[in-house]
Write a structure and sequence with these properties.
The protein has 320 residues and is α/β, with parallel strands linked by helices. Helices cover 42% and strands 13% of the residues.
């Protein structure tokens, strides 16, 4: 097999990398679904390429056509893009997004945060993806001042990723992190520029953090660039912790969320995920989710043509 240099790879694909090499994986079942449904493959592991490829093969065999995983895959395949594309094509999937745990409120981490996320953004662009999901680690301190500091860095990093690579960054409110509660989400959105930084909510973490996903999706519909579909079962005893469960078994009103996204014109990816599912068979969890998506939600897993995102900037307009 002929090996492409990075320059040759980019030239051959018009700078969009795998968007051209993957081709059209499928066509949506009907025009009324403006977004794609993929799978977040952390259930197979996060940091090793073997876990990535096990997850990609498993969900591809189930009919999913897009996957999201840890940003470190971009470091592992930097300069080996043709090999990555070939592996993804064998699995029948494309890159929907990368996930990056990044504490933007910590100035001491600024250099590394920018390095890894801009590297990941460049990789996403070459692979035809347009999204990096920004999560946070366990917060040791929380305050409005820290969220403002977080917001300043989110704006700058988001601007650089969008201007240089056309890739969007969005916050994933996560239990235990700086951005967790409904109030935190409001402060994060107020602290960030909608031109440069977006919302990538996780429905399960919203409920676990005390938010109503329907209200959050309604309030911030125009800032949502990506989302994780995850269900959550409320605890039987008040004050106890609930449980993340497969889609349709918990408290999340997914049919209503789908309607909100349809009305808003959302055209990004909805990636299914199940936290705490590592003790179960991840393929069985993905199969149950697939059946719920196709049956109860009446959504297709086939992907439509990759178009420019609904949330656009002047740079996006020029590229069109």
């Amino acid at each position: 097999m002929t090996t492409l240099t990075r320059r040759g790879f980019l030239a051959a694909t018009g700078g969009l990398g795998a968007a051209g090499l993957f081709g059209s994986v499928g066509a949506r079942a009907w025009a009324g679904q403006p977004f794609d449904v993929g799978y977040q493959i952390f259930g197979w592991g996060r940091y090793f390429p073997s876990a990535w490829w096990r997850g990609a093969a498993a969900v591809g065999a189930l009919g999913y056509r897009g996957i999201e995983g840890e940003y470190t895959i971009a470091e592992l395949y930097e300069g080996r893009e043709e090999e990555f594309v070939a592996g993804m094509r064998r699995c029948g999937v494309q890159l929907a997004a990368l996930y990056s745990s990044t504490d933007l409120e910590r100035p001491a981490h600024r250099y590394e945060n920018r390095r890894k996320n801009l590297m990941a953004a460049a990789f996403c662009r070459r692979m035809g993806a347009r999204m990096i999901v920004i999560g946070g680690t366990e917060a040791t301190e929380k305050s409005p001042a820290l969220i403002k500091e977080w917001g300043r860095e989110a704006n700058e990093l988001g601007r650089q990723a969008l201007d240089a690579h056309g890739v969007r960054l969005g916050v994933h409110p996560h239990v235990g992190s700086l951005i967790e509660t409904r109030q935190d989400i409001d402060m994060a959105m107020d602290a960030t520029d909608p031109r440069y930084f977006y919302l990538a909510p996780d429905t399960g973490h919203l409920v676990a953090g005390g938010s109503d996903p329907v209200e959050v999706f309604t309030t911030y519909a125009r800032r949502i660039a990506h989302a994780h579909l995850k269900d959550y079962q409320q605890p039987a005893v008040p004050g106890a912790r609930g449980t993340y469960v497969p889609l349709g078994r918990g408290a999340v009103d997914f049919p209503q969320l789908v309607q909100i996204l349809r009305r808003s014109g959302f055209d990004g990816w909805l990636d299914v995920e199940l936290d705490g599912g590592r003790g179960a068979d991840p393929a069985a969890v993905a199969r149950e989710a697939r059946d719920y998506i196709r049956g109860t939600l009446a959504l297709s897993l086939e992907t439509g043509p990759r178009t420019s995102p609904r949330i656009s900037t002047e740079k996006d307009q020029r590229e069109r």
